[in-house]
Amino acid sequence: MRILGIDCGSRRTGFGVIDSDGRVHRLVSAGAIATSPKDPFPQRLSRIHSELLSLLRQHSPDEVAVEDVFHGTNVRSALKLAHVRGVALLLAADEGLPLGEYSPLEVKMAVVGYGRAEKAQVHLMVKSLLGICESLGSFDASDALAVAICHATRNLGGGSGIKPRVLGTR
User: If you average pLDDT over residues 24-39, what whole number do you get?
Assistant: First the structure.
């Protein structure tokens, strides 16, 4: 199964595409969509939408996985994050793709085995699980890949029994 993982952010939205059977994962593509804080926010959302749509068309994932909003201390940042998540959720729904949402704790538990793992630990484990040596470029990309891996292990076998909130069907 091909899965697109998305780590939403208003400045950098990470993406990661993997092929997985639930136990063995293979990297297809990863990176980040960068927007300029100087641009008006609606324009930034539009760019994120077009880039994600382009990724969907290019890689034809079977499912999409997105990280849930975490409870941050900065309300303004949390609201911007929620807007970006809305773009990702709407895009998956418009494309008729099943969608899984996971908390940061669930993602870290699935990949590292510890829900309070640091970004560097997640990055290292993602590389290990994908069997790659080269850098993934950014924590945004490795976080998105971690979301995709979490989705794969929860839905295709090898998971811990935590059930995702899966929305929509193809």
Answer: 97
